[in-house]
Amino acid sequence: MAGKFNVYIFFNLLSIVIGHELTQVVILSRHNIRTPLTVNLERLSPNVWPIWDQQAGYLTAKGARLEEHMGEYISKWLKKENLLSENCPDENSVYTYANGLQRTRNSAKAFVRGAFRSCNVTVHSINSDKMDPTFHPILRNTSNVLRNVIIKEMQEKLNKLELNQSYRDLEEIIDLENSDLCKKDNVCSFVNTKDVIYYEIGEEPNVEGPLAYGNSIVDSFIMSYYEGMPLDKVGWGKITTTKKWESLAKITKENQNIRFNYSILAKEVAKPLINYIKELFDNENAPKFTLLHGHDSNLNSVMAAIGFKYYVLPDQYEHTPIGGKLILQKWHDKELEIDLLKVNYVYQTVEQLREGIKATDESPLWCEMEISGCPIDENGYCHWEDFMNILRAL
Ligand SMILES: *[C@@H]1O[C@H](CO)[C@@H](O)[C@H](O)[C@H]1NC(C)=O
Ligand SMILES: *[C@@H]1O[C@H](CO)[C@@H](O)[C@H](O)[C@H]1NC(C)=O
Ligand SMILES: *[C@@H]1O[C@H](CO)[C@@H](O)[C@H](O)[C@H]1NC(C)=O
Ligand SMILES: *[C@@H]1O[C@H](CO)[C@@H](O)[C@H](O)[C@H]1NC(C)=O
């Protein structure tokens, strides 16, 4: 709860730093609530999985509604800070760009509906249900030297992974022993199975084994919970305590940590998106507000490449929660005549998502973020030039 208190204190400060003017905002967002990604969950448990009314990996109606509220909420803030006026924006002031998948395109459209209702704001995206190269966090460099460095780092992290308790909790919930995965493929224990690194040019860095299975399963529990399913349909009613949720969610957190949270790997896979962001900040004619709608993999790799310090989001099990937004803000200090950077993670808590609470002044939490190499003052600002030097060096 102490963390939450800080978040609120901070939110008040946002409006009382006099003489600071907001001049540009880039939001990197994760899509909102979606159906589970894996279609063959049946193999992983003999229990009956909940039925979703859309195909795998699609934004749900509730996800769209929550994202629309986020759009309305964020645009109010942008207007309050005078970055945008009350009029409909043109393409020189607002630009929205989503990855090609349905859940990211529709999240951006929902955001725009809420933010710029009855205005003509286009969501830009490739329209093909494929990953857009800008958002695709894949390995591109064919150097064997780089390959060896990355695999070594991943293996070191895998060796230190401590998920035994989480796996034991999960095995019990899914009844792994009676699953096809055990009976047909002979994977009868996650604790005793090793993960194997998957490193292919043109693919995302990945692992095969219990971490990937566990991630699919826990992700589906988390989405069912957010979606508001009755509790007997969420992990078959067996996730009864916060402690159990935290134990399970550790698997999804570590999955992202193992796959994307490294400096060298992240610089490689996030290069196109980081270049895109760098150009937005380098170009004097760039839109004042840009919304980029992508995935947790985008947030994790971009943050790791830039060197964000470790952070904790109160009342969330996910490290990059559904619908959560990294908000990069350029401020001008009129007194000192300098530009400043401020970064916040804005997100809804687990319970706000489940209850479908509309984003209002009381609801999303603002977490203050810091980048190593861009030390913040007591109000959370760091020097713009320090930040740009970091981006230019990537
Ligand atoms: C909306 O914007 C698009 C792209 O900028 C443009 O082609 C279209 O004519 C606009 N529609 C209206 C109704 O203004
Ligand atoms: C690929 O990685 C190697 C080793 O780190 C580096 O020397 C080379 O410049 C990289 N190539 C590209 C195209 O980035
Ligand atoms: C986790 O379980 C494996 C397999 O039983 C064991 O080798 C390993 O030492 C355990 N790790 C920890 C941290 O207890
Ligand atoms: C990312 O990696 C850093 C350095 O290894 C580590 O301190 C941090 O806890 C990791 N973050 C997450 C969310 O796992």
Automatic annotation (TrEMBL):
<dbReference type="InterPro" id="IPR033379">
    <property type="entry name" value="Acid_Pase_AS"/>
</dbReference>
<dbReference type="Pfam" id="PF00328">
    <property type="entry name" value="His_Phos_2"/>
</dbReference>
<dbReference type="InterPro" id="IPR029033">
    <property type="entry name" value="His_PPase_superfam"/>
</dbReference>
<dbReference type="GO" id="GO:0050308">
    <property type="term" value="F:sugar-phosphatase activity"/>
</dbReference>
<comment type="similarity">
    <text>Belongs to the histidine acid phosphatase family.</text>
</comment>
<protein>
    <recommendedName>
        <fullName>Glucose-1-phosphatase</fullName>
    </recommendedName>
</protein>
<dbReference type="InterPro" id="IPR000560">
    <property type="entry name" value="His_Pase_clade-2"/>
</dbReference>
<dbReference type="InterPro" id="IPR050645">
    <property type="entry name" value="Histidine_acid_phosphatase"/>
</dbReference>
<dbReference type="GO" id="GO:0003993">
    <property type="term" value="F:acid phosphatase activity"/>
</dbReference>
